[in-house]
Design brief:
The complex is a heterodimer of chains A (about 160) and B (about 375). Chain A is built from seven helices and no strands. Chain A has about 160 residues and is mainly alpha-helical. Classes of the chains: A mainly alpha (about 160), B alpha+beta (about 375).
Amino acid sequence: MDQEKLFLEAVRESRDKMFRIAMSLLHVPADAEDAVSAAVESTWKHFHGIRNTEALSAYLVRSTVNAAKDELRRRRRKAPLESVDQSPAAEDPGDPLYWYICGLEEKYRLPLVLRFQERMTEQEIAAVLRLPRGTVSSRIRRALSILKESMDKEGSADAE
Amino acid sequence: MLNERIEKTLQEHAPVPPAGFAERSDAQVLKMMADQKKKHGFSWKAVLVCALVIVMGITTALAATVEDVNTLLYKCWPEAAEFLMPLNVSCEDQGIRMEVLSAAAGRRNALVTFSLQDLEGDRINEYTRAEISLEQLFVGFSETESGIVQLSWDPETKTAVYAQDIKTNGISMPGGAHPTLAVNSLYTPEHVLVDLLPLMKQYPERTDTVPLPEAAYPMALETYSGKIPEGMEILDPAGSLEIPLEEHTYLCGYGWIDGLLHVQVRYDNQPDEEGVNPVNGHIRLQTAAGYNPYEQADRLPEGVVGFWWDENDDGPVDREEYLFACDPADLETAVLQADIRINTPDAVLPGNWSVRIPMRMIRSIE
């Protein structure tokens, strides 16, 4: 397949997923779209070193995570003392589980989102986040444990 | 049940891209293709790799001066080295002195050399890694690449010299700004070096192979193609020789497969809650002619220099197999070492080494 067509096809197949992943970190659609755009540009620059569609898709996703994290670092430098609550959970207070998921620390939330929202395997997540698979597995377990604890308390509070 | 609820909740709340997202994305890709230009500029990582190769060949320690450092880099890349300006900006924390030796910056990349000297103890050595940040030099970037390498180590003055490169897709700040170079922590694990060739001579080479496990990840050069070599075979883990090298580390065997030397090791230790092995390692080869995997890229399939995998499915790396593009005759005069790193909590030394560098003191390479 022509290389340019291969690249365009990979971007078209991956970009919605890239947007969702960027949103899980940034929560602002415009910033998430910028992160996707930056990831596409970065991947294009390294395209000569990527030979198949699977590796290309993984590279696009990984670049998206990197670009989103760069934006988070920029935000922290701009307004270190401000508490910018951009969590989408406030828009839907009727779903406490989603609220708790949004409240997870990023290191737990991101693997959880990749696993359950994007339905990636732990191996794929490890490759995207450049973590040992065991670390991915332990972070997902920890996220589930935190959520279970939160939901149990919620259930107790409701009962009261 | 909770897993199903989480999946359902996340699927229901999955963000939908805004109107026009697909069209804008298509337009971006098509514009990039239309605007495609030949890449210009230098490869910073190639500079640092060259520097590392030179350092590995140096058997006597340097009392590193700016001139020594620049000499090292000049051998690899004279065009960059000539732009490095001596700075001599320093700070001290916990009895360790950091000095920024030289720097050069372009529109999208920078090279900084700095030294760390332990004035009071033995907390730095040739294996010390520094976690650093270079802030406020670039704005407008969304992607960065960086690499750091220790250029030299002088045990007499307890001084290590590093080179840090950064490449971004942004632009550099205008003159008058004050970039900050900060070392946030130092990491000095215990190291044990084990010469493998004397051991290997006591045991026959292995010829039992199996297909590469599906769970294996590649260790690769920058030239990595992104795909696993087809038909890749490794030494059969079931036939491991289990030769102890260090606590929790075993040499499983060696053998020649498709013209490449394969060396397999196994780690057997309890990972911490972050899934990190207390012990891990790296095998390196040094031949009489000098071994640089980048020079052997055409022999190393798809740019791969090894594989690692978790065969117990308990998280961390259990087994590694290294590939070396050398010939049997090369081993007669070579050094093949297992560099085993023992990670202990006190291996990390957080600190506050931070200097502001007036932008006017950084020479521009453009």
